[in-house]
Structure formats: structure tokens, C-alpha cells
Design goal:
Elements (H helix, E strand, L loop, with lengths): L2 H36 L4 H16 L4 H10 L9 H20 L6 H17 L6 H33 L5 H41 L11 H17 L2 H10 L5 H21 L5 H15 L4 E2 L1 H29 L3 H22 L24 E2 L2
Antiparallel strand pairs: 1-2
Helix pairs in contact: 1-2, 1-4, 1-7, 1-8, 1-9, 1-10, 1-11, 2-7, 2-8, 3-7, 4-5, 4-12, 4-13, 5-12, 6-10, 6-11, 7-8, 7-10, 10-11
Length: 384
């Protein structure tokens, strides 16, 4: 391995772990938004629990990692340089930061896949991408999983209210608040089994690309540990902007609805992880929250926010792909291009961070609806 390749692989690993960190704070909302919104868990307690369980979940399975390292990219048919992977990662990170800035719970997973596909197409041609695997393991689950989770949450919410309709409201809230603690932890654990593995797969793909690891092999233990620790650290930081949108922007939920949403999300994610589907946990949890909102009579769903989220979901894959493709066009020019791309990404990240300081969201104001920008339009619809 020459010096150039060694340096680029090092940059890939650092950048992949950076993406893993942004994935953690971007997607904390998946596990804990409903529990924080209903008061079942205090904000700081919630993110500590989510971070710990994300770390544990990272060690439970490698199916999703294998999908990424040995399914999405045709590394055996074309030469995939580590600089292509670096470009794809930078595309995903920039898109993650942009959507985090505006509080949109977009998919970190689709940002990663979009950035990687865009970079590989520019770097190695369309034959470098296994489009059948992208469709079967990424795109189809993206369409099906939020619908399945939403229907499950809708049915569970209806069933819960049918069972407890004669109970006092205080007793219902108290009982399900304890239940939400369990279901929120299950969502966090399932998030680790799915999202942490995506970065494992990327690092493993980079090692395979330079011949440091045989094709088709599982992630090494140090890769699993590094990815698990990094996503846990990012989760602990708390993606408060996205937590506010999911917890307060879509619908006002109480503890029975939160319990139903979290149980539905955890089940969907765990089954998908077992099957190796690299789905978007963001979409699954958003679908569950909408389903729980529709499941309670008289509850309101903010379709304006839901519509904007849907647009973000649809554009994430191609938008990250365009950024990844542009980055790859620069990195493939050589070492100077690689350094220039990294510097430009650092500048973009710094600018986004500075913009976020104008309207900070933290554990103290995360449940304050007044500052939710996505709720600027009060368009709501009553559930049936």
C-alpha cells in the first residue's frame, strides 16, 4: 500500500466515524423524541440511555454492514478507490448537517447511500453500482417500512384506547409512562443494530478496496467497537432540533400513543436488521408517530410538517448523490484534490454550525413548540 493510498484510507476511516457521529446526534430523535415529548424520560436521561443502548446494539448483528460492504457496490467488477468512498461520505455528512440545521428528520442512511452511489458513478461508472441491491435492500424498504410501522402504531393505539377507555386518565398516563421507558430503550437498541452497522460497512468496504481485507468478510472487531462508541457519543450529544420536530412538530402525543409508536418502530427495525435491510430508522419512527396520531380520535396531525418531511425523504438520496459526485470529481484528480475536498467540507460544516448558533435548541427548550420553524404553517387535519 503506497503513501497516498494509506493517507486516503486514514481519511476515509476518520470521515466515516465523523459521519457515524452525525448519524448519532441526527437520529437520537428516532429513539427518544416521543418519550421526551410525553415526559416519560427527562431529556438528558433519554440521550444517555439511547447512547448506551446504541453501543450495545452495534455488537448484536453485522447483517446490514455486510449488505453495504458486499452488496451495494460491485467492488469485484470495477476498481473502487478509497477516495471515491471518502467523497461519498462527505456528501452524506454535508447533507446530514444541512437537514439537522433546519430540524428535518431526514434519513442519514439514504444520505450515506446516495453520497456513495453518486461518488462511485463519477469515479468508476454506473457499472460500479449494484442497482438491484440498492432497490431491494434500500429503496423498497424505504417505501414499505414507514407504512408498516405506521399501520402497526395506528392499530396498537386504537387497541390501547379501547382497552383503557374505562380507566382514569391519570392511571393510564402513569402506567404507560413506565412502559414507554422500556419501548424507548428497545428503539435505541434496534437503532444500534441498524445504523451503527452502516459505518462499519463503509470502513470494511474501504479496507476491501485496498486489499487490506478479503472481499465478503465481516467487519473486524476494532471497526465494530469504533463505530459503536462513535455513534453512542453522537447520540449523547442529542439531536435536539430533530427531537423537537418529531416530538412536537408532527402531532401532540401522550404516553399510550408514545408507547404504541415506539413498540411499532422497534419491532420493524429489529426485523429489518435481521434481514439485512439498511432501512431508514428516521422514516420508520416518523411513520409510527403519524400512525399513533391518527389512531387516537380527536388527535391532530400536522400534515404541513409531514409533507415537508416527505419531500426531504424524497430528495435526500439524489441530493447527497449530487454532493458525493461533485466531491468525487475533485478527489479523483489526485492528492491535492483530496485535500481540497476535505478542506471545503470542513468550511461548509463550520458555516452550518455557526448558523445553528443563531437559534440554539437544547435539552432546556426541546419541548417548546413556539420555536419549531417547521410549524410556521398551522395546517393540521383531524384524525378520523
Amino acid at each position: 500500500m503506497d503513501i497516498f493510498t494509506l493517507v486516503v484510507v486514514g481519511l476515509v476511516i476518520i470521515t466515516a466515524l465523523t459521519f457515524d457521529f452525525t448519524n448519532g446526534f441526527h437520529d437520537t430523535a428516532n429513539a427518544m423524541a416521543t418519550s421526551i415529548a410525553t415526559g416519560a424520560l427527562k431529556p438528558k436521561t433519554a440521550v444517555i440511555a439511547a447512547g448506551t443502548l446504541n453501543l450495545i446494539g452495534a455488537f448484536l448483528s453485522t447483517e446490514v454492514a455486510n449488505t453495504i460492504s458486499g452488496g451495494i457496490i460491485n467492488e469485484q467488477q470495477v476498481t473502487i478507490g478509497p477516495e471515491f468512498i471518502l467523497a461519498g461520505l462527505l456528501g452524506a455528512i454535508i447533507w446530514n448537517l444541512l437537514t439537522w440545521l433546519v430540524g428535518l428528520p431526514s434519513s442519514s442512511s439514504h444520505a450515506l447511500f446516495g453520497g456513495l452511489v453518486g461518488a462511485v458513478i463519477v469515479g468508476a461508472g454506473v457499472e460500479g453500482v449494484n442497482f438491484a441491491a440498492v432497490a431491494m435492500k434500500v429503496l423498497i424498504p424505504a417505501l414499505v417500512s414507514p407504512v408498516v410501522a405506521g399501520l402497526a402504531a395506528f392499530c396498537a393505539t386504537r387497541l390501547i384506547y379501547a382497552i383503557v377507555k374505562r380507566m382514569k386518565e391519570g392511571e393510564v398516563e402513569s402506567g404507560f409512562r413506565h412502559g414507554q421507558t422500556i419501548t424507548a430503550c428497545l428503539v435505541a437498541l434496534s437503532h444500534g443494530t441498524n445504523d451503527a452497522q452502516k459505518t462499519m460497512g463503509i470502513i470494511t468496504l474501504a479496507l476491501i478496496a485496498v486489499g487490506a481485507q478479503p472481499s465478503g468478510s465481516d467487519p473486524q472487531l476494532w471497526v465494530i467497537a469504533a463505530c459503536g462508541i462513535t455513534i453512542a457519543a453522537g447520540t449523547y450529544m442529542g439531536g435536539w432540533r430533530v427531537i423537537r420536530t418529531l416530538g412536537k412538530g408532527l402531532t401532540e402525543i401522550n404516553t399510550p400513543q408514545g408507547f404504541a409508536a415506539e413498540a411499532s418502530s422497534a419491532t420493524t427495525i429489529l426485523v429489518s436488521s435481521h434481514l439485512g435491510f439498511a432501512l431508514s430508522t428516521t422514516q420508520v419512527c416518523s411513520g409510527s408517530i403519524i400512525g399513533s396520531g391518527l389512531g387516537k380520535k380527536g388527535s391532530e396531525v400536522n400534515w404541513s410538517v409531514a409533507g415537508r418531511m416527505l419531500i426531504a425523504w424524497l430528495v435526500t438520496f439524489p441530493a447527497a448523490g449530487v454532493i458525493g459526485a461533485a466531491a468525487c470529481a475533485l478527489t479523483k484528480t489526485g492528492f491535492a484534490g483530496v485535500i481540497a475536498t476535505v478542506v471545503l467540507a470542513l468550511i461548509a460544516g463550520f458555516v452550518i454550525f455557526r448558523l445553528s448558533r443563531r437559534n440554539p435548541v437544547n435539552s432546556m427548550n426541546v419541548n417548546d413548540r413556539a420555536d419549531v420553524k417547521l410549524n410556521a404553517e398551522p395546517a393540521t387535519a383531524h384524525a378520523a
